[in-house]
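S1.2 Input.
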Amino acid sequence: MRGNANLRQNMILIISLLLVGCTPMAEISIQVMEPAEITLPSYINQVAFINHSYVPRYDSEDTAGFTQKEIYILDTVINNQIFLGLRIGLNESPLFDLDSIHIIQFRRNDTIDFLKPLTRNQIRVIKQSEQAEALISLEYYRMRDTISINSYQMDLVAKRQIISHTVWRIYDLTSDSIFDEYMLKDTTEWYVIGDDRYYLMNSLPEFINSLRTASYNAGFKYGQRISPYWFDVPRFYHTSGGKDMRIAKKKAASLDWKGASDIWKKLAYQVNEKTAAKACFNMALVCEMEDLLIPALDWAIKSYLVKQDPVTKGYIDLLKDRYEKQKIIKTQLPVEE
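S1.3 Output.
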């Protein structure tokens, strides 16, 4: 997933330490928000969409063997799925709630060597028909499909791979300028393992279905580039440490986090340092689940000061990373009045 490399590294470290450690812990999944790669100006409330990519050109020597009619059908499938993925990607964010989108069809015929942006006159015409402050434009797309079969140990592995290249621009309709210009490369792959080549080739997804998926992914990932989005991450909490910790474990397992946290809060100040450290760690998780990252950090640091556990140190680093991202997210989301 784009933009959360530090988060992944910290989680890999924590999981690795858990695997080699002996402290019983339970795993849950929580949702966290990832900031967008770019921050849209606060005055942008409505966006419009335009397909400004090339009209597909028919080549009679095309090795794919498609007819001119089939090429136009594939072009329609690709563009429909790209914009569907874009809409769903944007809707992952609190910034957008798009039931459907109207796509302006304005296909380009200029040279492929340079993707000329829309002219001021063209933008002015669009502004007259669209009630929006920004225009998201698909400027170019290319899909490359390959199939390979390779040996792996005693088996054969068939792979279908589609590499997509899309070029996007966001036009600021308020200032008649280009706000974002980005080329997105994405790879979608499918694998089948077996010992019969005929079976493998017939088990791979069909070309048209693969194309739909790859096109959707391209649009979805650009949507995530320009809007904060939620995603699931694993988290862990301690379950051992005496009778009260076991009672709290049962409450947490039944999603009674209030009941569990009441117990952990009391245990955090008891004499037994191991249990106190575990209870503090668990309180940090409760705070993080409520997006209270400063209290979460306070509890995690308190846990580490009581007992220098590398798992706790990894969690502190993870919370620090989330706190820095939270500051960015606050600049990307509208202020609630």
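S1.4 Remarks. The mean pLDDT is 90.
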